[in-house]
Amino acid sequence: MLEKKENLLVKKANLEVAKAKNFTKAKNKRAAIQCLKRKRLYEQQIEQLGNFQLRIHDQMIILEAAKATTETVDALRTGASAMKAMHKSTYAPIIYYCYVC
Predict the structure, then answer these.
(1) What pLDDT is stored for residue 45 in this prediction?
(2) Running DSSP on this structure, what letter comes out for residue 1?
(3) pLDDT digits (tens, 9 = 90+) for 51-74
(4) I need a labelling partner for 85 at 20 to 30 A (CA). Which of 6, 41, 68, 76 fits?
(5) Domain tally for the chain?
(6) Domain boundaries, position 10
(7) CB 58 within 8 A of CB 65
(8) Which compartment or compartments is the protein found in (predicted)?
(9) CA–CA gap between residue 101 and residue 83 (Å, rounded)
(10) pLDDT digits 0-9 by tens, 39-54
C-alpha cells in the first residue's frame, strides 16, 4: 500500500516538474516556482513513506527474531523436561537399590 502511494507521489512530482517547465517557457516565473515548491513537498512525503517502510521492515525483523527466540526457549524447556523425566526414571531405582544394600 505504501509503495502504491509512493508511486503516485512520484508521478505527481514529475507532473509538477513538467508544469514548471511549461510555465518557464511561458515566462510565468511565479507559477513555475509554485510548481517546484509542490514538487519539493511531494518529495518530502516520498521520503517519509520510505522511512515508514524501513520502520515496518525493522519491526518485522524484530518480530521474527522474537518468534524464533520463543520457539527456541520452548524447545529447550521441552528438552529439559524430557531429560529430567529420563533422569528421574533412570536413577531413582539405582539409588533406592544402593540404600537397600
Answers:
(1) 96
(2) -
(3) 999 999 999 999 999 999 999 999
(4) 68
(5) 1
(6) 2-100
(7) no
(8) Endosome
(9) 27
(10) 999 999 999 999 999 9
